[in-house]
Design a protein that fits this description.
Mean pLDDT: 93
Radius of gyration: 19 Å
Order of helices and strands: HHHHHHHHHHHHHHH
Oligomer: single chain
Number of helices: 15
Strand content: under 5%
Helix content: over 70%
Distance between the termini: 54 Å
Low-confidence stretches: none
Shape: globular
Largest sheet: none
Structural class: mainly alpha
């Protein structure tokens, strides 16, 4: 895990340099001292959730730091369509959207990643269940891991893990890395709980080819028209 955390820090450092930002400028935007940020970037202090959340608010690609895969920042045509859907039809339509997206992924992606499976699973739960659990709970269930084994995999006691799952505690960078390793759940899904569905739709959409996207949009519009009729 130390090697993976070092890789995380390297990506963070290179990203900052790519933005042509000094440690002083970055720490100033974060509201901490340059010395504190330097210790975080060197791995002397584990980067806390609050700092990662602020970096995300600044537009930094925190998912990339954890996963090593750059996030494509865009709003998909499918999300634009969903944004205009009347609330009373949204849940039923989302069920259809999940199915279409899953079929699209199966058509367009040869080797479906752990994180894609996690995202599809979370979206399915959001479409089928009335009461949403925390994203961490959903990701753990999708991975098929019980609470105690999960706490052991994350290196925390069960009491602390249950607080993490109930969102009474926030995971630091090292825990986020472990969560990603075990479940495929990316930090953005844990940071933006309100926008989970939109984030996942955008992510899955990026892996689908334009012709299949066009078919999905047409089918979703037809289902929405049917629901309203």
């Amino acid at each position: 895990m130390r090697d993976k955390y070092d890789n995380f820090l390297h990506r963070l450092n290179q990203y900052r340099l790519r933005l042509n930002m000094t440690q002083e400028e970055t720490s100033s935007e974060l509201g901490i001292t340059q010395s504190q940020f330097s210790k975080m970037e060197l791995g002397k202090i584990i980067i806390p959730y609050k700092v990662l959340a602020l970096l995300m608010e600044m537009g930094w690609d925190v998912d990339y730091f954890i996963t090593g895969k750059e996030t494509r920042q865009n709003t998909s045509e499918l999300n634009l369509l969903m944004d205009g859907v009347e609330e009373r039809y949204r849940k039923e339509l989302l069920s259809a959207v999940v199915w279409f997206l899953e079929q699209g992924i199966n058509k367009c992606v040869l080797d479906i990643s752990f994180e894609t499976k996690c995202e599809i699973g979370i979206l399915k739960k959001r479409a089928s269940e009335e009461k949403f659990e925390s994203v961490l709970y959903e990701a753990r269930k999708i991975a098929g891991i019980a609470q105690i084994p999960m706490s052991e995999k994350l290196g925390v006691n069960i009491k602390k893990y249950r607080k993490l799952e109930k969102e009474q505690l926030c995971p630091d960078a090292e825990l986020l890395l472990r969560i990603y390793e075990e479940t495929g759940c990316k930090p953005s899904l844990l940071f933006n709980c309100i926008n989970v569905e939109s984030l996942i739709i955008n992510d899955l959409w990026n892996d689908i080819t334009p012709p299949v996207r066009k078919s999905i949009l047409s089918l979703v519009e037809q289902v929405y028209g049917f629901l309203k009729s």
